[in-house]
């Protein structure tokens, strides 16, 4: 829907999922107590990205780029069309695309990618190449062999040269970075359901205007 095109603080089209631990709390949306706000791990898919072996693939990539930008920034695309800006996609087709629901746009985009892209030497998050203009690319060969590493109580498969891949994408990935804009309060011992219930009953005082801090209930004074 058009509402979905504008929801959240960033384009709704970002292809990702979140794995959340419902036993914990990581409060990013204090005005939405009805949703699961447990500590999460973001999972981003990796798609093939340029450079491609021929101009036809590059044209398809430009087309896919314009489709994704239309999903992410429909008002800007409408304004560009009004000003007769040229696109790889026919302007009449873009206007039809703009009238689709968010789900229809996403389905069309997915089908376009599946039909026109099968292989590249490089992969990355497609939206990074399109929206955030990040130049980071990963060699697809680095992902062919994996090893199992412990994570919490399970083991997960990771690329053999994971250190180089993570360094390419994040720099010093060993250093913990906390982004204040993402979270207001967090706890590994209280679920988000209990958090909002306690806040409603004023069991502990929480200032939602504060920047990220651990709930004092988790760390009682000795």
Indicate the topology.
Elements: H1 2-6, E1 17-21, E2 25-27, E3 39-43, E4 47-48, H2 55-72, H3 74-82, H4 91-98, H5 102-116, E5 122-124, H6 126-132, E6 138-139, E7 146-151, E8 154-159, H7 162-170, E9 185-187, H8 192-201, E10 213-214
Helix pairs in contact: 2-3, 2-5
Could you name the key traits of this structure?
36% helix; three-stranded mixed β-sheet; alpha+beta; 17% strand; disordered C terminus; flat; 10 strands
What's a quick, concise take on this entry?
This protein has 222 residues and is an alpha+beta fold. It has eight helices and ten strands.
Explain how this protein is built:
By secondary structure, the chain is α+β, with helices and mostly antiparallel strands. The protein contains eight helices and ten strands. The protein has a three-stranded mixed β-sheet, with helices on one face. α2 crosses α3 and α2 (55-72) packs antiparallel against α5 (102-116).
Q: Which runs of at least 5 residues are low in confidence (pLDDT < 50)?
A: 1-11, 205-222
- Name the structural class: alpha+beta
Helix count? Answer: 8
What Rg is obtained from the alpha carbons, in whole angstroms?
21 Å
Q: Could you give a short account of the major beta sheet?
A: 3 strands, mixed
Helix content estimate: 25-40%
Our estimate of the beta-strand percent is 15-25%
End-to-end distance, in Å? 53 Å
**Run of helices and strands:** HEEEEHHHHEHEEEHEHE
Arithmetic mean of pLDDT: 78
**Mass-distribution shape:** flat
Strand line-up of the largest beta sheet: 2-9-10
Find the count of extended strands (DSSP E, 2+ residues): 10
């Amino acid at each position: 829907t058009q509402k979905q095109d504008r929801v959240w603080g960033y384009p709704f089209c970002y292809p990702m999922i979140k794995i959340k631990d419902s036993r914990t709390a990581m409060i990013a949306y204090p005005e939405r107590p009805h949703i699961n706000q447990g500590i999460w791990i973001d999972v981003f898919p990796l798609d093939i990205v340029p450079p491609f072996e021929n101009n036809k693939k590059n044209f398809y990539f430009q087309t896919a780029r314009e489709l994704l930008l239309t999903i992410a920034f429909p008002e800007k695309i409408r304004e560009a069309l009004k000003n007769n800006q040229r696109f790889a996609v026919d302007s009449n087709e873009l206007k039809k695309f703009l009238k689709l629901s968010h789900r229809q746009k996403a389905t069309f985009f997915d089908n376009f990618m599946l039909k026109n892209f099968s292989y590249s030497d490089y992969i990355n998050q497609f939206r990074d190449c399109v929206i955030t203009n990040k130049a980071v690319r990963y060699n697809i060969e680095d992902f062919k062999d994996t090893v199992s590493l412990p994570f919490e109580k399970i083991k997960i498969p990771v690329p053999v040269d994971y250190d180089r891949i993570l360094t390419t994408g994040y720099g010093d990935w060993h250093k913990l970075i906390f982004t204040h804009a993402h979270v207001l309060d967090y706890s590994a011992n209280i679920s988000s359901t209990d958090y909002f219930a306690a806040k409603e009953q004023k069991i502990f005082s929480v200032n939602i205007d504060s920047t990220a801090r651990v709930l004092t209930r988790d760390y009682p004074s000795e």
